[in-house]
């Protein structure tokens, strides 16, 4: 081995740069709380937008009737019809469809995008569960899950602040997305009205609360990341005089944009940010979410390939941005075969490099460092929310009949990264225990809600809970 030491040096340096000892996690927790306060105090007061949702009541399982929902949150548009039966956990039936948004529509024009959404809905609504044609006479009410930052004006309307997650259609920014959808529905002759506009995080919170009334926050960890929670209206300083029936309101944090100098950031993260379409934005998301983790790992491997000969002479796809997806990285990380066969296969198939076992082990280490940091930072974020709500066991809780120490707090978690990546989930849960301590963390439950906004809504989702 020539220059093996250099590859190890790259690894060591990266590992140090990504370190998340408990002290640093606590700093991130506190920074999150500070930024939450700042974002609630004034618009623009923090990188955390802390958006009002006007949602002041969450479903409690008593709902009845047939509901339609449409979900636009990235590269797919999904429609859903659910029948709720009125007793908790009685979702009588649901069905849905999911269609990819063609790549050119992700950047073309508002009209084209919303026409596609309207057509998807029309096809779905105008046939019943058995595929028979339905005549839609009455105006139907529609829930619209739109998972991009929106400045809401009411529970059913709001203007797009900016696109994220690969959608960039300039002329939508600043427009009311409910109006865009309703106009498209009208163009397509569909008699439907948007009665609620939420993002996926709020959808996950609603679904979580439907099953368990102790659900106080929701976090999405998929391609992107975001969180929301229930805040007391009197703590939402930026809209003084705001009153809600419940005294609370769901706040959409848009936490993907969180930033703090305490976040561990390496040259690889800086390069990824520099080359991204949204430089200096979504900083927390770039450290945590599925859209980026694979690429952070790839950048480190590329550096190793340049500095040493551990990948032989071939660079292959290592220099290609996003050649390594996060699910691929996860599969390498979780390869349990003694000769790391899966690692070899993935490196060969996706990156055209053939590497010996010793190098494969290095690759697994890189995946581990990337994922561990991501999971631990997400955990610190979650504890930050709990702390802001006085549910982290540290005392100083807002007034309440039950002591904060004994209150059970459920956090609904949704997204492919958390649900599909076991080691990520384990690191996250472990870090929450580490920060909160055994006793307090016993009252914190992270529960996977399978797709509160989309089609996998089902009764099993309430069984997959896990106490951290
Ligand atoms: P979205 O965030 O677009 O709504 P999902 O919540 O389904 O979609 O998350 C999809 C993302 O989660 C993918 O982009 C991928 O990065 C990540 N992901 C999905 N499955 C896995 C897995 N098994 N291991 C690691 N990451 C995964």
From TrEMBL:
<dbReference type="GO" id="GO:0001678">
    <property type="term" value="P:intracellular glucose homeostasis"/>
</dbReference>
<dbReference type="InterPro" id="IPR022673">
    <property type="entry name" value="Hexokinase_C"/>
</dbReference>
<feature type="domain" description="Hexokinase N-terminal">
    <location>
        <begin position="11"/>
        <end position="210"/>
    </location>
</feature>
<comment type="pathway">
    <text>Carbohydrate degradation; glycolysis; D-glyceraldehyde 3-phosphate and glycerone phosphate from D-glucose: step 1/4.</text>
</comment>
<keyword id="KW-0067">ATP-binding</keyword>
<dbReference type="GO" id="GO:0005829">
    <property type="term" value="C:cytosol"/>
</dbReference>
<keyword id="KW-0418">Kinase</keyword>
<comment type="similarity">
    <text>Belongs to the hexokinase family.</text>
</comment>
<feature type="domain" description="Hexokinase C-terminal">
    <location>
        <begin position="217"/>
        <end position="454"/>
    </location>
</feature>
<dbReference type="InterPro" id="IPR043129">
    <property type="entry name" value="ATPase_NBD"/>
</dbReference>
<dbReference type="InterPro" id="IPR019807">
    <property type="entry name" value="Hexokinase_BS"/>
</dbReference>
<dbReference type="GO" id="GO:0005536">
    <property type="term" value="F:D-glucose binding"/>
</dbReference>
<dbReference type="Pfam" id="PF03727">
    <property type="entry name" value="Hexokinase_2"/>
</dbReference>
<dbReference type="GO" id="GO:0006096">
    <property type="term" value="P:glycolytic process"/>
</dbReference>
<keyword id="KW-0324">Glycolysis</keyword>
<protein>
    <recommendedName>
        <fullName>Phosphotransferase</fullName>
        <ecNumber>2.7.1.-</ecNumber>
    </recommendedName>
</protein>
<dbReference type="GO" id="GO:0005524">
    <property type="term" value="F:ATP binding"/>
</dbReference>
<dbReference type="GO" id="GO:0004340">
    <property type="term" value="F:glucokinase activity"/>
</dbReference>
<dbReference type="InterPro" id="IPR022672">
    <property type="entry name" value="Hexokinase_N"/>
</dbReference>
<keyword id="KW-0808">Transferase</keyword>
<dbReference type="GO" id="GO:0019318">
    <property type="term" value="P:hexose metabolic process"/>
</dbReference>
<keyword id="KW-0547">Nucleotide-binding</keyword>
<dbReference type="InterPro" id="IPR001312">
    <property type="entry name" value="Hexokinase"/>
</dbReference>
<dbReference type="GO" id="GO:0005739">
    <property type="term" value="C:mitochondrion"/>
</dbReference>
<comment type="pathway">
    <text>Carbohydrate metabolism; hexose metabolism.</text>
</comment>
<dbReference type="Pfam" id="PF00349">
    <property type="entry name" value="Hexokinase_1"/>
</dbReference>
<dbReference type="GO" id="GO:0009749">
    <property type="term" value="P:response to glucose"/>
</dbReference>
């Amino acid at each position: 081995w020539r220059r093996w030491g250099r590859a190890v040096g790259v690894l060591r340096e990266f590992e140090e740069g990504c370190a998340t000892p408990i002290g640093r996690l606590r700093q991130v927790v506190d920074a999150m709380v500070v930024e939450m306060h700042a974002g609630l105090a004034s618009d623009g007061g923090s990188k955390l937008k802390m958006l009002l949702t006007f949602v002041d009541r969450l479903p409690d399982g008593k709902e009845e009737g047939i509901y339609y929902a449409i979900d636009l949150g990235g590269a797919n548009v999904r429609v859903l019809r659910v029948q709720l039966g009125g007793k908790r956990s009685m979702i009588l039936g649901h069905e849905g469809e999911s269609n990819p948004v063609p790549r050119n529509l992700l950047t073309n024009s508002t009209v084209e995008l919303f026409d596609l959404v309207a057509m998807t809905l029309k096809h779905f609504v105008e046939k019943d569960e058995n595929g028979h044609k339905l005549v839609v006479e009455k105006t139907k009410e529609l829930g619209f899950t739109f998972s991009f930052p929106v400045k809401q004006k009411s529970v059913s309307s709001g203007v797009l602040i900016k696109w994220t997650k690969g959608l960039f259609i300039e002329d939508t920014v600043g427009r009311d997305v409910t109006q865009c959808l309703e106009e498209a529905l009208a163009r397509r002759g569909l008699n439907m009205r948007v009665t609620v506009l939420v993002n996926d995080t709020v959808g996950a919170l609603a679904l979580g609360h439907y099953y368990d009334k102790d659900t106080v926050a929701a976090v999405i960890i998929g391609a992107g990341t975001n969180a929301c929670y229930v805040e007391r209206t009197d703590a939402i300083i930026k809209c003084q005089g705001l009153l809600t029936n419940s005294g609370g309101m769901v706040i959409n944090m848009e936490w993907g944009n969180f930033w703090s100098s305490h976040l561990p950031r390496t040259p690889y993260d800086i390069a990824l940010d520099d080359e991204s379409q949204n430089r200096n934005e979504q900083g927390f998301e770039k450290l945590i979410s599925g859209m980026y983790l694979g690429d952070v790992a790839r950048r480190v491997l590329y550096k190793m390939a340049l500095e040493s000969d551990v990948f032989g002479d071939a660079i292959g796809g290592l220099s290609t941005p996003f050649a390594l997806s996060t699910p691929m990285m996860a599969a390498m990380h979780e390869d349990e075969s003694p000769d790391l066969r899966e690692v070899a296969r993935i490196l060969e198939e996706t990156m055209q490099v053939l590497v010996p076992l010793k190098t494969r082990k290095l690759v697994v280490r890189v995946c581990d460092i990337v994922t561990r940091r991501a999971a631990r930072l997400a955990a610190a974020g979650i504890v930050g929310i709990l702390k802001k709500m006085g549910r982290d066991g540290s005392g100083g809780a807002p007034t309440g009949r039950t002591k904060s120490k004994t209150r059970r707090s459920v956090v609904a978690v949704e997204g492919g990264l958390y649900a599909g990546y076991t080691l990520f989930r384990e690191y996250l849960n472990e870090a929450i225990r580490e920060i909160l301590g055994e006793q307090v963390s016993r009252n914190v439950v992270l529960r996977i809600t399978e797709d509160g906004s989309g089609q996998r809504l089902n009764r099993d989702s309430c069984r997959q809970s896990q106490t951290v």
